């Protein structure tokens, strides 16, 4: 089962792990400000966002756990 969420947006200003397409670094911490995706440093993310994951879920995946 994929942990990437593709069919809804996170709560506004909640920091999540964002997956972008066509970028040199495709995974970033970021958030959706209600209008657009931004990196954790508040820069607008370039390229399409193809999914996002809550930080707690990302930690589970990185630790080898299951969702």
Structural commentary:
With 67 residues, the protein is α+β, with helices and mostly antiparallel strands. The protein has a domain of 44 residues. Helices cover 12% and strands 30% of the residues. It is built from 1 helix and 4 strands. The chain has a 4-stranded antiparallel β-sheet. 15% of the residues are buried.
Rg (CA only): 11 Å
Query: What structural category characterises the helix and strand content?
Result: alpha+beta
Q: Which spans have pLDDT < 50 for at least 5 consecutive residues?
A: none
Q: State which percent range the strand residues make up.
A: 25-35%
Q: Given the structure, what is the number of helices? A: 1
Report the helical percentage. 10-25%
Describe the SSE topology:
Layout (H helix, E strand, L loop, with lengths): L15 E5 L6 E6 L4 E3 L9 E6 H8 L5
Antiparallel strand pairs: 1-2, 1-4, 2-3
Short description:
It contains one helix and four strands. By secondary structure, it is α+β, with helices and mostly antiparallel strands.
Any descriptors?
alpha+beta; 12% helix; 4-stranded antiparallel beta sheet; 67 residues; globular
């Amino acid at each position: 089962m994929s942990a990437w969420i593709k069919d809804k947006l996170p709560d506004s200003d909640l920091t999540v792990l964002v997956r972008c397409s066509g970028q040199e670094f495709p995974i970033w911490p970021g958030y959706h400000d209600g209008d657009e995706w931004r990196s954790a440093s508040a820069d607008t993310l370039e390229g399409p966002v193809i999914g996002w994951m809550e930080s707690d879920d990302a930690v589970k995946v990185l630790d080898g756990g299951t969702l």
